[in-house]
C-alpha cells in the first residue's frame, strides 16, 4: 500500500464504470475517503456500496454531469459538506467506452458528436478543476490528475475527436500546473495505453485490445489494474515535487 493516502478526500469523476471504478476501489483500499461522481447515479451508488462492503473507507456517490458547470459546483459543495475538504481530483470522466463514440476516420464523424465529446472530455475537465480550486487554494494543498491517452503519442488513425481531446488535456495540464503552483497544488496527467476497460467486452473488442500486444515491450493485454499504481503514486505525498508531467502507462509502446 502507498502511504499517505489514508483519510484523504478524493473525487473520482466517471468513477462508476471501467477504469474509474478501479481507481475508486484502489483509493478505498489505500484508506482514502472516496467520492464516486458519475452521470450514472445508480452505478455510482453500487460502487459506493461495494466500497463500503469491502473496505473501511467512507464514501459518497454523487450524480454529476461534468459538462454542466452547475453540476460540478454541486459536486464540490456536497463533498465539502460531507468531508470538509478536497485533497485530490481525478478527472476521469470522458466519452470513450461506456458512452459510445464513432471510432471511424474524420469523414465519418458527425459534427454534433465532435461537440458532445469535447463538452465532456474538455469542458468537463475545465469545469471540474474550477469547482475544486477555490478549496484547494484555501487549503494551500491539493492534487489534480488529468487523463490523457496513449493514442496521443501513437497518432493512430480513427477517433480523431477523442485523440484531439486527449492531446489538449496535455496542454491543459501543463498550463494549470503553472497557474496553481504558488498555492502548492500539483497537476499531473496519466496516459493509459490500449486498456481492456469494457465491463462486458465483445470478442471483437478483445481482439482490438489484443492488437497492441505485439507493439509492447511487456507483451500482454493491458488491464485497468495496471493503472492503479501510477494513479496512487500521483495522488500520494510521494509525488509532492512533481507537477506538469505526464506518466505514460502502456506496457512499453511509446517511450517519452
Structural features:
43% helix, Rossmann fold, alpha/beta, 7-stranded parallel beta sheet, 8 helices
Description:
The chain has one domain (9-249): 3-Layer(aba) Sandwich (Rossmann fold). 43% of the residues lie in helices and 15% in strands. The protein is built from 8 helices and 7 strands; from the N terminus they run βαβαβαβαβααβααβ. The protein has a 7-stranded parallel β-sheet, with helices on both faces. With 256 residues, it is of the alpha/beta class.
How many discrete domains?
Answer: 1
The CATH superfamily turns out to be NAD(P)-binding Rossmann-like Domain
The count of β-strands is 7
Ends apart, CA distance between termini: 27 Å
H-E order: EHEHEHEHEHHEHHE
CATH architecture: 3-Layer(aba) Sandwich
**Integer average pLDDT:** 94
Based on CA inertia axes, which overall geometry fits? globular
Read across the widest sheet, the strand sequence of neighbours is 3-2-1-4-5-6-7
Counting DSSP H or I runs of 4 or more residues, the number of helices is 8
- What is Rg? 17 Å
CATH topology: Rossmann fold
In the predicted model, the low-confidence regions spanning at least 5 consecutive residues are none
